[in-house]
Amino acid sequence: MKLLLEHAHVEGIRYYDTYRKNGGYRSVEKAFKMTPDEIVEEVKKSGLRGRGGAGFPTGMKWSFLAKPEGVPRHLVCNADESEPGTFKDRYLMEFLPHLLIEGLIVSSFALGSHATYIYIRGEYAWIVDILEQAIGEAKNNGWLGKNILNSGFDCEIYVQRGGGAYICGEETALIESLEGKRGNPRIKPPFPAIQGVWMRPTVVNNVETLAAVVPIINNGGEEYAKIGVGRSTGTKLLSVCGNVKKPGIYEIDMTQTVEEFIFSDEYCGGIANGKRLKACIPGGSSVPILPANLLLKTAKGEARYMNYESLSDGGFATGSMMGSGGFIVMDEDQCVVRHTMTLARFYNHESCGQCSPCREGTGWMYKILKNIEYGKGKLSDIDLLWDIQRKIEGNTICPLGDAAAWPVAAAIRHFRDEFEWHVNNPDEAQNRNFGLAHYADPIHIPAGA
Amino acid sequence: MKFNEEKLNKVKEIIARYPEGKQKSALIPVLHLAQEENGGWLSTEAMDHVAELLSILPIEVYEVATFYTMFNLKPVGKYVFEVCRTGPCMLNGSDNIIEYIKEKLSIKEGETTPDGMFTLKPAECLGACGYAPMMQLGKHYREHLTKEKVDAIIDECRRNAASNN
C-alpha cells in the first residue's frame, strides 16, 4: 500500500508538470471547496499521528491552535530531520517536493497561515534549491501567492535553512532558531499553539505528517483510517540503515511483522553478507535497542509488528518505540558498546547546554563509555552509567535528555554481559567483538525487567 | 568582508520573508551567505557586518555563530571533508574511512593540510544513514564511501582547484 510514494518512481515527478499530470494538487482543489474546520475534522478522523517521532495526533494538535482576533498565525514545517537513523523526510523533499508543498498549502488554509515556513536542517543545502524551485513552480501555476484559486486566501511558503543543530528538531528550539537565536528549547507552557514564533499561535508539524494530509484530503479521513492497525492508521515511512541487504526508504501500512520487514525481499531483504541479526533500534537512535529475540517476538512470545502499539509492547523493559521510523539494524559482528558510545557522543555534541543534567550528564556518559570501549573501564562504571541516565531522564526542559538517557539504559538493560566482557577482557575487546551471544535465543527476559 | 550589491539584495529578499521588525530571523540564512563569501569561515569582521545589516548587536550574532555546528570560527581548507561517524555510519565502516583520510592527507581530525586544500571535520549524523559511510563536501553529500572513492574525491578536488587557478 503506497500513498506517499505512489508516484515516487515516475520520471520527472520532481517537476510540476509531471506531478500535476499524476494527480498532483487535486487535494488543494478539493480543500478550497471545504471550510478550514472541515479540513481539520478530516485530519482528526484520519487518526494521523505526528510522524516526527512523538506520535501525537495531528488533528488534535491543530485544534489547539489559538485564533485571537487580529493576530497572524503560522504553520511551520519541521524539516530539521537529524535523529540518527532517520532520512525519510530528506527522501520526500528530494524526490517529491511538490507533495510536501501541496500538503503545506492545504494545511496552511486549514490553519489560516498566510506565511508558512519550512525549517530545513542546514546540511540539506541542495534540497533548499529543490524546494525553492518547486515553490516557484507552484506559484507560477497559481497554487501560491494572492487569492489562490479565487478563494480570497493568500499564502506564501518560505524555506529557512538551519545551522546544524539536532536540538532544533524540538519544536520550541526550532521556533527560537527561526527567530534567529540559539536553539534553546522553551519552557512549556505556553505551548506553540498559543505563543509560538514571534509570540504568535503556531503549529509545527513534521514533513511526512504534512505530506500525509494530501491523501487524507483526496480520499477522506475515514478511508485513511481504514489503512493500518488500531491507532496506527495510514502508512508510515521507514528509513532503514545498518547491516541489511537493502537499506533505504519503505512505505508500510503497519500490518507487517518485524520478521517479515527485515527478512522478506519486498523490504530489507535480510541481513547483509550472510550474517545473523543481533540487535535493532527500530525508531531512531533515541528509542531503546532490542536484542534479536525481543525484536521479533514480544516478551509474551507473540510476533511483533511494525506499528506504534506493537513496537512499544512491554514498555521499555522488553519493548521499544516506533519513534521517527529510523530503523537501525545490527549484525552479529557489531559491538553494542561502541555503537552506544557513538550515540552518547552524538547527544553530548547536540545538547544545547541549558539544563545541567543533560549538559553535564551526556558528557559524563560519553567519557565513561569511551573508557569501557577502549579497555579502561571498571565494573562499577556500568552501575554509574545506569545511575547517570536515570538522573537525566525526566529532569530536563526538553526531551533531548530522555533521548540521550534511553539508548544507554536499554543497552545496559539488554546487553549488560557485553559491557562486563569489555571491562573484564580489555585486550580482547580491542581486537574482536562480543558477537551474538544469546541475544538471538528464543526469548531472553532481562533480570529485573 | 562586506557583501556586494548582489548579496545585499539577497539579504533584503531574506528579510522580507519575516514580519516587520523581525529581521533578526534572517540571521542564520545570512550567516550562511557571509560564510560562503568569506572563504568558508566567519571572521569577527564578517559577523559584525551581519549585525549591522540586521540592526542587531554583535553579541547576538556571536552567540548564534558559536552555537551552530555549521559555522566555522577559524579558517578552513578549500575543501572540507565532513565525515559522519555516528552509529549508523559506524556500523558501515566510517571509522575506517576517517582513518584512511587521516593517513592519506597526513592530518588529524579538525586539522587542515599545510597547502590549505583540505580540512577533515568529523561530523555527527547528517541524515544519510542508509547510504553510509558518507561525507558532506560543500553543498552535496558523497555517499557509499570506499577508499577508492575517497581517492577519487581527493583527485577531483585537486583538479578543480588547479583549473580554478
**Cα end-to-end separation of chain A:** 37 Å
Shape of chain A, please? globular
CATH architecture tag of the largest domain in chain B: 3-Layer(aba) Sandwich
The CATH H-level superfamily of the largest domain in chain B is Glutaredoxin
Give me the CATH superfamily of the largest domain in chain A.
NADH-ubiquinone oxidoreductase 51kDa subunit
CATH class wording of the largest domain in chain A: Alpha Beta
Briefly characterize the structure.
Chain A is of the alpha/beta class and 449 residues long. Chain A has helices at residues 16-21, 26-31, 36-46, 58-63, 88-95, 97-111, 125-140, 171-178, 207-219, 221-226, 258-263, 292-296, 308-311, 315-318, 336-350, 356-373, 379-392, 400-424, 426-431; strands spanning 74-79, 115-120, 156-161, 202-206, 228-229, 232-233, 236-242, 248-252, 277-281, 290-291, 326-331.
Describe the structure.
The complex is a heterodimer of chains A (449) and B (165). Chain A is an alpha/beta fold and 449 residues long. Chain A is 43% helix and 12% strand. Chain A has 19 helices and 11 strands. Chain A has helices at residues 16-21, 26-31, 36-46, 58-63, 88-95, 97-111, 125-140, 171-178, 207-219, 221-226, 258-263, 292-296, 308-311, 315-318, 336-350, 356-373, 379-392, 400-424, 426-431, and strands spanning 74-79, 115-120, 156-161, 202-206, 228-229, 232-233, 236-242, 248-252, 277-281, 290-291, 326-331. Chain A has a 5-stranded mixed sheet with strand order 8-7-11-9-10. In chain A, strands 3-2-1-4 form a 4-stranded parallel sheet, sandwiched between helices. The mean pLDDT of chain A is 96. In chain B, strands 2-1-3-4 form a 4-stranded mixed sheet, covered by helices on one side. With 165 residues, chain B is an alpha+beta fold. In chain B, strand 3 and strand 4 form a beta hairpin.
